Description:
Layout: H1 8-22, H2 38-42, H3 45-55, H4 71-81, H5 84-92, H6 97-108, H7 126-133, H8 138-146, E1 155-156, E2 160-163, E3 173-182, E4 185-192, E5 197-198, E6 206-215, H9 219-236, E7 245-251, E8 257-264
Amino acid sequence: MSELPEDYEDLRDELYDHLYRKLERKDANAERFAAQGTAKEVLHSYVLRHLFSALTSPDRPKRPPPFTINQAHFSELINEHELHDFLAVLIFASCNIDAVWTFVQKLVQPNKEENTLLPVRLPVEKEYLQRVFGSGNPTVNKFYDAQACFATLVIKKGEKNVLKKPHLHRLPWLEEKMLGEGNFGTVRMVRIAKGHFLGWNGPQPAEIARKDYELNKDAEENFENEANMMARILQRSKHNNILASLGTLKIESNPPFSACSCHELRRTCNNT
Length: 272
């Protein structure tokens, strides 16, 4: 990383660029996402210390609050409280220095055991943001609208995953390719970003077959029945030509809602 700016606003804009370049599917506004570890990779110890220096610079026309921590302690506490993603959203939403000062005062420097605002995991509701930044503060809406990019869904292999608030998350699909159509929906090959498919132990992103369903109220039962039936069949079967079921994901919204089932994608075929 090149020499960093000393001014907070210039530093924020440069860190925005570093974060943006690390995003997956960055050219698709509604689909871009940060994979696990992205914020921590960009906001490493040197950057955090430099950021704190910019936050407490005596050259600013408005003096900073009387913090009780220094550069090194700031970096240590960000790591201890796992606040990289939260800080990344503040930067990505181009929040002003007052918002970051409040972040330090409310989330970073207080004792962890005494701080009712910790731990914090994205996404967060507006009520939580109002407790941090104050009701009516523009940071509340700016943060709320920007956080989905850093709240990428983690899918658990072999389970019935449910996403209740899709507007607050991004899906971890690196790539999608149509394979065909089946009952109630389509089948696609998808690559899932590393760290976002728990139980997948391969060194590369998971590559699976995903069957998508566009569901209405009547069709939901069909999806549940098919998913349960596939699970029972595959649990009993050891045949090499039957794929392994890897779980389901139901995405809820004010109608319609959708769901998908995930299956192991076999690339080998028998020569006959």
